[in-house]
Amino acid sequence: MTSVPILADPAWLEGGPEGSIVLSSRVRLARNLRGHPFTHRANPDERAHVFETTREAIAAAPSLAGAEIVRVDRTSSLDRQYLVERHLVSPDLAAGSGPRGIAIGDGETTSVMINEEDHLRIQSVRAGLDLTEAWKRADRIDDELDAVLDLAYSKEWGYLTACPTNTGTGLRASVLIHLPALMLTKQISKVLRGISQVGLAVRGMFGEGTEVMGNFFQISNQTTLGTSEPDTLGSLDRVARQILDHEKSATEVLLKNARLQVEDKVFRAYGILGECRVIASQEALSLVSALRFGLSAGLIDRVDLGRLNRLMIETLPAHLQKRAGGKLDQVERDYRRAELVRGVFSS
Amino acid sequence: MTSVPILADPAWLEGGPEGSIVLSSRVRLARNLRGHPFTHRANPDERAHVFETTREAIAAAPSLAGAEIVRVDRTSSLDRQYLVERHLVSPDLAAGSGPRGIAIGDGETTSVMINEEDHLRIQSVRAGLDLTEAWKRADRIDDELDAVLDLAYSKEWGYLTACPTNTGTGLRASVLIHLPALMLTKQISKVLRGISQVGLAVRGMFGEGTEVMGNFFQISNQTTLGTSEPDTLGSLDRVARQILDHEKSATEVLLKNARLQVEDKVFRAYGILGECRVIASQEALSLVSALRFGLSAGLIDRVDLGRLNRLMIETLPAHLQKRAGGKLDQVERDYRRAELVRGVFSS
Fold it and tell me: Residue B346: what pLDDT?
């Protein structure tokens, strides 16, 4: 069994451009090794071969110098959940079987999943709204790996992938955006409808099939075929900026029409986080969401954006258990979570 | 128009015997002047005569030396509500018509309502569970007024009163008791049934016809005929001590089985009161109730019992308006109330 160490704070939680509304921008590239069956059709030996080949290429890639490579199939279920909570591995990779892993680059801003649905999933994440830089870094890793590995690419189709929805660019770009004012003013469904109409997908905090929590929405492209990377990124960036403007307008409306009620919500969140003795994960996230909103609306200055962002991860179940050094039942988690948030917010 | 000044903190809110559970002990004596129609049958001239006669007697009573006598019919509706909130006058006296008033003794621990349902209602209140002392003081005032006034008394019936339910001793003794643990453990209805079975009445915080709020119950005798004052007081005191024991046992059970949840409730109340920007009267009372419980259960020591007790009165609508110097609408009251409680609880 390989044990995942407690990792340092991810750099992408520290706040970036438009950071008060956009938590992060992500790019992932799906790639496969030519002449090898896709993961779900590969037997353990073939998977082990892909893992080893990829591992060597990663170890040699300058952009991933010093990356920690973890054999996810050799970790405990707690460690796997820990990696999911940090957005390093997908729930699918965590739940999969056979040799598979994750290479974790500096500050967790770059990483490569090995033997997920595709042999390689190159990932890059930036704080705030910064798709260009996220793309540049993923693209550089792609170039470096491409120089060493023989990637499955067709002149006609582009990059070949296990699922046809990724074929072409293999690019999924996404922004994780915080929309409390659109929720409070009940405009969110109109905005989400608009997003779907321009061919983008809306998901929960941990991607496909996950719930929307704490007013965080993940917005991503759906098309990878017959389009170029710059078009995909440009269109997502444009839509993200529009949503951002909607959120800002909704915030102004709220401050104009219901300032006191909104302030009350924000400061009560602060009071509860500073005093609670037990707190569930969902409630903690929703109170942190209220404080993030208070910060972006200029209603409160006693909190730090980076600290709030980190807390959203630190209060998740596996993070609490890693910090405590072992398994905790729900009652113990709720207790430890309260202890953690009190330490941050109590005066 | 007579304006009621902002009164000093009532002495009976400072905490007394068993003060963490029993807020106060009250005694009132219903008395009428012989040869004068009861208030509801008296015309304005007769009421004015009763008022004047009584006023003179009160002014001469040594136990009421320095008492402030307020003509309630000459006060604003806000002032009348203010007096009701302080438990000085009944809702009935506030809402009545014609010459009527209240004589307010030292620290508001003794008072006399004039021309309520009966011509005189001598009132005495003590902090905590202290019916004996409350009775002694009311009895002394009764003696002093009896020496000057010709009170309606029959050898056969005892004191004659406007409503037959008061005839006899004219005594209503009550304790205002805080039972959060019995509420939380859902044993309260059983306890209340027991109280009714021994012939006592259970009412809300402001007496007959008022709601139970913040887990405060007023328990009082129902019988005034064919019984003596010592019997009435002794029986109420005995029952109050039994309820007190039930509440203490329920507290122990809660601390044993759900300490964390109870602590959470108490400290969240503290956090919310320290940070809220708007708060309704009911919510404020229920959070103060949680803190009173925290104090009596030994869970929190950052709060002072007297301060909590005073806050229950100070956060009421008329008190907020008196403090603000004029009428406030509900939104303004909720705002001022939040400001007031924050001042007390924020660190």
Answer: 76
pLDDT at B303 over 80: yes
Residues contacting residue B150 through CB under 8 Å, at least 6 positions apart: B33, B34, B35
User: Domain residues for B298?
Assistant: 259-346
User: Mean pLDDT, chain B, as a whole number?
Assistant: 94
Do B281 and B232 belong to one domain? no
**Residue A272: which of B272, B338, B347 has the nearest Cβ?**
B272
Of the CA atoms within 13 Å of residue A161, those in its CB half-sphere come to 23
> Cβ(B109)–Cβ(B124) under 8 Å?
yes
Per DSSP, the three-state class of A94 is helix
Residue B206 has pLDDT above 80, yes or no: no
Instruction: Inform me whether the C-beta atom of residue A160 falls under 8 Å from chain B C-beta atoms.
Output: no
pLDDT in tens, A74-86: 999 999 999 999 9
Query: Helix axis angle, A330-345 relative to B229-275, nearest 10°?
Result: 70
A267 located within any domain? yes
ipTM: 0.90
Domain count, chain B: 2
Domain CATH code at residue A185: 3.30.590.10
- Name the residue in chain B with its Cα closest to that of A278: B264
* pTM, two decimal places: 0.92
Contact B268 A274 (CB under 8 A): no
Nearest chain A Cα to B259, which residue?
A277
Cβ <8 Å between A278 and B264 = yes
Residues B180 and B42 in one domain: yes
